[in-house]
Specification:
With 451 residues, this protein is an alpha+beta fold. Helices cover 34% and strands 25% of the residues. The protein has two domains: 197 residues, FAD/NAD(P)-binding domain (3-Layer(bba) Sandwich), CATH 3.50.50; 187 residues, D-Amino Acid Oxidase, subunit A, domain 2 (D-Amino Acid Oxidase, Chain A, domain 2, 2-Layer Sandwich), CATH 3.30.9. It has 17 helices and 20 strands. Helix 1 runs parallel beside helix 5, helix 1 runs parallel beside helix 15 and helix 2 packs across helix 15.
Length: 451
């Protein structure tokens, strides 16, 4: 008997799930019919992986320790498919509460890295103004996926959808599912034209649209919080491409205060709020190729501004998202102050006028840990959600686990992974700094492997 399985969403998680459904069914001898529905008109990295690049690194405390094997597995496969570029990943700044855990995680997890003081930074990366800064520099990944790099999310999505199609999957773009209803016989999806399609099983990989799509079906999905971060693209002039195409990925984390004001007086003169210790900034940056022919080089800067996060309608959030000239000046001033060697190469950055601004919506659970789980015990709906921007890092492994649930093989998923990502776990309201410890505690409690 052929089982009909639908995947809602063709982003990184959905595309990976479709690919792994086809692959795993072949291994187990199950006959399945796969249909993928994507609301956007074409393959896109519209969600948390917005833009043409995404950082992947093992030295991350934004996910539980059990994710590290998932990240390495995903890196290895993405590298084999030509969808990731190895690159150093630098976490740099003076924000002790962010830098210290980064060093501790790198050491504890045996991540290949070095710790740099201000002088080391100046010697290795002279384009930084590193006064008062420390850095954790993770090595570029090897062929085994052990290390850091920059993922091309659009290429990774397209590669997995192509493989799924070759295995017989049907992919429908521009098809936004209106509702999902489960009963004893399966799951019914309502299509945009009002027609219903019945499936034996469904995987919801709808990203920030999960709460809206599965409203009222589980408290955890109802409470996925959403936000939108602005991403700025600055075109790299032709004559500068050679010097910037090996640019590392950078996570800049800066905290204000008296000492910061003493070391960076010009920046504080422009932004006096940073004289106070409560002020902080977080941005990430990397290079990416884009443009009409895909050969234009850009510097991508993602800003994580302080903002209130609460359950919201993501469509409204995206529609309302905007940046002001003041915001663009802020980013320009950051670069001029802390990365003058890069800023002076980019005319649009000097002029505080981005060549393009895009917005990356993201969703996360209260404990900042993704959900990869059946909707409830014996449910025919598997939920992949609340990845909080980590989807690029371990989407390939996530798709494998989602497919295992959907095909009725949870035993193929390590017990610690099932526990940590369960929709019924005690999520609490952990803050991001507390999250890594929470993940390690959860994994250790059920005998999981900690790298």
């Amino acid at each position: 008997m052929v089982e009909k399985i639908a995947v809602i969403g063709a982003g990184l998680m959905g595309a990976s799930t479709a690919y792994h459904l086809a692959s795993l069914a072949k291994q187990t001898g199950q006959e399945i019919d796969i249909t993928v529905y994507e609301a956007s008109p074409d393959a896109t990295a519209r969600g948390g992986s917005v833009g043409a690049s995404r950082i992947t690194r093992l030295n991350t405390r934004d996910v539980p320790a059990v994710c590290l094997d998932m990240i390495q597995h995903s890196n290895e496969q993405a590298l084999a498919w030509g969808c990731v570029r190895p690159a150093h990943a630098i976490t740099i700044g003076n924000w002790k509460e962010k830098l210290d855990p980064a060093r501790e995680v790198a050491k504890a997890q045996n991540v290949r890295h070095s710790v740099l003081d201000s002088q080391d930074i100046a010697d290795k990366y002279p384009y930084f103004n590193s006064k008062g800064f420390l850095a954790v520099d993770e090595e570029a990944m090897t062929a085994s996926g052990d290390g850091a790099g920059v993922i091309d999310p659009s290429k990774l999505i397209a590669t997995q959808l192509k493989l799924a199609r070759e295995a017989g999957a049907k992919v429908h773009f521009g098809t936004k599912i209106q509702s999902v209803a489960e009963d004893a016989n399966g799951v019914t999806l309502t299509l945009p034209d009002g027609k219903n399609e019945h499936f034996d099983r469904v995987v919801s990989a709808a990203g920030v649209w999960t709460s809206k799509l599965l409203a009222g079906q589980h408290a955890a999905t109802d409470n996925v919080i959403t936000g939108v971060d602005p991403v700025f693209l600055y075109q790299v002039p032709e004559e500068q491409k050679a010097s910037m195409q090996d640019f590392p990925s950078v996570m800049l984390k800066v905290k204000g205060g008296d000492e910061f004001a003493r070391q960076h007086p010009e920046f504080v003169a422009q932004h006096p709020e940073f004289a106070k210790k409560e002020a902080y900034l977080q941005i990430y940056m990397m290079t990416e190729y884009g443009g009409p022919d895909g050969k234009d080089l850009f510097l991508k800067i993602g800003w994580c501004p302080p903002m209130e996060k609460a359950p919201n309608d993501p469509d409204q959030l995206i529609a309302k998202a905007s940046v002001t000239q003041k915001d663009q000046c802020f980013i320009s001033n950051i670069m001029k102050a802390f990365m003058p060697g890069v800023a002076q190469k980019l005319p649009s950055l000097q002029a505080a006028k981005a060549d393009q601004v895009i917005f990356g919506p993201y969703g996360c659970a209260p404990d900042y840990t993704p959900i990869i789980s059946p909707l409830h015990a014996d449910s025919r709906i598997t939920v992949v959600a609340a990845d909080a921007g980590t989807s690029g890092k371990f989407s390939i492994a996530t798709g494998k686990y989602a497919a295992s649930y959907a095909l009725g093989h949870p035993e193929l998923i390590p017990e610690n992974v099932r526990h940590v990502f369960s929709i019924d776990r005690e999520m609490g309201k952990a803050t991001m700094p507390e999250q890594a410890a929470l993940g390690q505690t959860q994994a250790a409690a059920c005998g999981g492997k900690i790298r």
